[in-house]
Amino acid sequence: NTEIENLRASRLAKKYHLMECGGSDAHTIEELGRVITCFNYCIRSREDLIFALKNNLCRAELNDYSPSIGK
Length: 71
Description:
Blueprint: H1 3-15, E1 35-39, H2 46-54, E2 58-62
Antiparallel strand pairs: 1-2
């Protein structure tokens, strides 16, 4: 996605109170692992993960270090 597309998606998520999480729609090896999901909650079980996602206790972040591109 372009930066403009990401900003638009982020604005819409805030406007409609939607959770943002990182995912990979990678089309090249260099794109793998570039966006991650960080949690503001300790995840120790499936139930913890579901709780964190449902309660917006996470955020999408760009990954400064991605082993797939050898940084």
